[in-house]
Specification:
By secondary structure, this protein is of the alpha+beta class. The protein has 4 helices and 7 strands. Helix content is 19%, strand content 30%. The protein has a 4-stranded antiparallel β-sheet with strand order 4-5-6-7. Strand 5 and strand 6 form a beta hairpin. It starts with a strand and ends in an 8-residue tail after the last helix.
Length: 132
């Protein structure tokens, strides 16, 4: 059985621009490892206009920063994951967490069709730029 990805963009707040959050199987995968007050990557960086998102999975493994604690990634480190496509499967693995004692999320395996559709949907939905 495959995991299911949902990409959500959180509106900008008083401290940060719009940010991306990742929900897998109905759970926020950033919140636990980065702690309360942490954030996801900025939407403008991860979902750039006119260019493919770094979330697009290829046969080449790529480490992607997907979160950071409230004190910033430069202080305590980033939550990152290796994203790679294996034919009809997209795998998120080899998590690095920003601070102990946080546990890394489990390895995820997504159906490539569902994954590609969700990334394409997030790339096309630019509502958050109105609020930038």
């Amino acid at each position: 059985m495959f995991d299911r990805l949902e990409i959500r963009v959180v509106p900008p707040g008083p401290r940060f621009a719009a940010q991306v959050r990742f929900w897998v199987n109905g759970e926020d995968v950033i919140e636990g490892p980065v702690g309360e007050g942490g954030r996801g990557p900025f939407a403008a960086d991860l979902l750039p206009a006119g260019r493919p998102s770094l979330l697009r999975a290829t046969g080449e493994a790529r480490r992607l920063e997907v979160g950071e604690p409230q004190c910033t990634g430069g202080c305590c480190g980033f939550l990152s994951v290796v994203v790679q496509r294996f034919k009809d499967v997209v795998q998120w693995s080899d998590w690095e967490v920003p601070q102990a004692p946080a546990s890394p999320p489990t390895e995820f395996h997504f159906d490539a069709g569902q994954y590609d559709a969700e990334v394409a949907r997030a790339e096309a939905d630019r509502w958050w730029q109105v609020h930038a």
